[in-house]
Design goal:
The protein is α/β, with parallel strands linked by helices. It has six domains: 2-76, no CATH class; 81-119, no CATH class; 130-205 and 462-498, Nucleotidyltransferase, domain 5 (2-Layer Sandwich), CATH 3.30.420.10; 209-224 and 371-456, no CATH class; 254-301; 312-343, no CATH class. Helix content is 48%, strand content 15%. It contains 21 helices and 13 strands. The chain has helices at 79-92, 95-103, 110-119, 165-174, 187-196, 206-223, 251-268, 273-280, 284-292, 296-299, 315-323, 329-338, 345-358, 370-378, 386-398, 400-418, 424-432, 437-448, 450-456, 464-479, 486-498, and strands spanning 2-6, 12-13, 20-21, 24-37, 40-52, 62-64, 130-139, 143-150, 155-161, 180-183, 201-204, 240-241, 360-361. A hairpin with a 4-residue loop joins strand 8 and strand 9 (155-161). Helix 1 crosses helix 3, helix 4 runs parallel beside helix 5 and helix 8 crosses helix 9. The longest helix has 19 residues, at 400-418.
């Protein structure tokens, strides 16, 4: 769709000195792309005027008039079309956004979308009272950054390069007024918050406290692996059983028995072979075989005489030797040859094959592993299955140290869930009284960060919103196949959270 238009006569203001002018220098045509109407692209051919600036003090001699809401300097699209492309760039960035723009009848390159995205202003925000701090990976294991969010509004504020103390301290000094800082147990963030915002109260996240406790419990379980249950049977002598033949009939056998009963019932009613065949939609020969068989076993091969074999005279010997545990077909073949057997090895192997298929090797359940026992200790007892609870009880009965660790974990969980951090000192004293070096190290770490830990166990503030924002950052990274550098990643994270 093509729209042809031109501006009307009148005055326009100079963009530099804002002096109005109506003196025309010349006219020229601008071609603008607009948002599509229905499924039709829209192109506007607009004739505009170039005017003289009558202000002698202005350095500009001429200027082009702009139509409000339709044109802007050097623009090839209307503001409405530009806003659509900006929304596409924020949501999908480069290549994916360019593919979507084709469906919107506005073919643009990925670099154009990225340029529009980077030109957008950052969303406005005020210095928060409660700041959330956490790290994220730009390249896992190699490069990391720091994300800062407002814990009250849950909106991201900044993405900083690196995760060292000086980076955080510099940002905090530039934005004074923060009252509470929620962070994980990283020492660099604790130091950066202390230097950059000494007046702020630091809160250690409860999730990270529980995670650190799990690591300490795993160390305790590793020191007492000898207390874990062992396998029921060793790999050298697994028990084997030979179950009886299954009494449940197969689908084929059930179908044959049902067909035999129906055919004989119809025969007793006086129906003929052809009539029964038409009624049951089966062949006449099949009906005749069912009619001749007095019992279903005859159809199943029960009365079929097997062909004579060279092995018939020696089957009893094979059965006895199998019952004694001799199952090697090569050995049995040698024994039968000594008794006069002249047949092949394959006949013996074929005779023994059904028995081998029925042999079941009974292997005891694998003993619980290190992490499995750690998970049982860390999990709430109500969330353990019956078998897991039984195995955990047996393990704790076998090892008093792990029983003490389990008791301390449950008491710490009560402090954490009820946010009664005032009882933490008693918990540390109880931990020191046990022979559990792993938990001793955990208690030492708590004492080094005591104020933040106690506030984390008494305050309702936590790093949950920050962890959610880190997941959002991961999603944005995957959309860009992990190739985005920090400026583009920062722009998309800030803008997608603001929309």
């Amino acid at each position: 769709m093509r729209i042809v238009a031109r501006t009307l006569d009148g005055t326009a203001s100079c963009p530099d000195c804002e002096c109005p002018s109506a003196r025309v220098h010349s006219c020229y045509e601008r071609r603008l792309a607009d948002t599509p109407v229905g499924d039709q692209p829209v192109r506007i051919r607009l004739t505009v005027r170039r005017l003289y600036c009558d202000n002698t003090r202005c350095g500009r001699r001429t200027f082009v008039e702009q139509v409000a809401g339709l044109t802007f300097r050097y623009g090839r699209r209307t503001p409405a079309a530009r806003r659509v492309l900006e929304a596409v760039a924020v949501a999908l960035a480069g290549r994916a956004g360019a593919r979507l723009a084709v469906s919107l009848h506005d073919a643009v390159s990925r670099t154009t979308l990225l340029r529009l995205l980077m030109a957008l202003p950052d969303p406005f925000w005020e210095v928060p009272k409660v700041l959330g701090v956490d790290d994220f990976a730009t390249r896992r294991g190699q490069h990391y950054g720091t994300v800062l969010i407002d814990c009250e509004s849950r909106k991201p504020l900044a993405l900083l390069p690196g995760r060292d103390a000086e980076t955080l301290a510099t940002w905090l000094r530039e934005h004074p007024g923060i009252e509470v800082i929620c962070r994980d147990r990283a020492g660099s963030y604790a130091e950066g918050a202390r230097i950059g915002a000494p007046q702020a109260v630091q809160v250690a996240d409860r999730f990270h406290l529980w995670q650190n406790l799990g690591t300490a419990v795993e160390q305790c379980v590793r020191r007492h692996t000898g207390c874990l249950p062992s396998p029921i049977s060793g790999p050298g002598d697994p028990p084997e059983i030979e179950p009886p033949l299954a009494t449940e009939m197969s689908p084929i056998e059930a179908r044959i028995r049902e067909r035999h009963a129906i055919v004989h019932a119809l025969l007793h009613q006086g129906h003929g072979i052809r009539e029964i065949a038409r009624e049951l939609h089966i062949g006449g020969n099949t009906v005749r075989r069912c009619a001749r068989a007095a019992t279903p076993e005859e159809l199943l091969g029960g009365r079929r005489q097997s062909r004579p074999s060279q092995l018939d005279l020696y089957k009893s010997h094979l059965d006895n030797r199998w019952a004694e545990g001799i199952t090697n077909a090569v050995q049995l073949h040698s024994e039968l040859q000594g008794l006069g057997y002249r047949g092949s090895y394959q006949i013996i192997s074929h005779y023994l094959r059904p028995r081998r298929r029925r042999r079941i090797r009974v292997v005891g359940p694998a003993p619980p592993g290190l992490r499995q026992v750690t998970g049982w200790i860390m999990r709430h007892p109500d969330r353990l299955s019956e078998s897991e609870g039984k195995q955990l009880a047996e393990t704790l009965t076998r090892c008093p140290e792990l029983a003490a660790a389990h008791r301390l974990v449950r008491s710490f969980a009560a402090i954490l869930t009820t946010r009664t951090g005032q009882h933490l000192k008693d918990w540390v004293v109880s931990t020191r009284a046990e022979e559990l070096p792993g938990l001793h190290s955990f208690a030492t770490g708590l004492e080094k960060d005591w104020d933040a830990v106690v506030r984390g166990l008494t305050s309702h503030w936590n790093s949950g919103p920050v962890e959610g924002r880190v997941n959002h950052i991961k999603m944005v990274k995957r959309q860009m196949f992990g190739r985005a550098k920090l400026p583009l990643l920062r722009k998309r994270v800030l803008l997608t959270a603001a929309r």
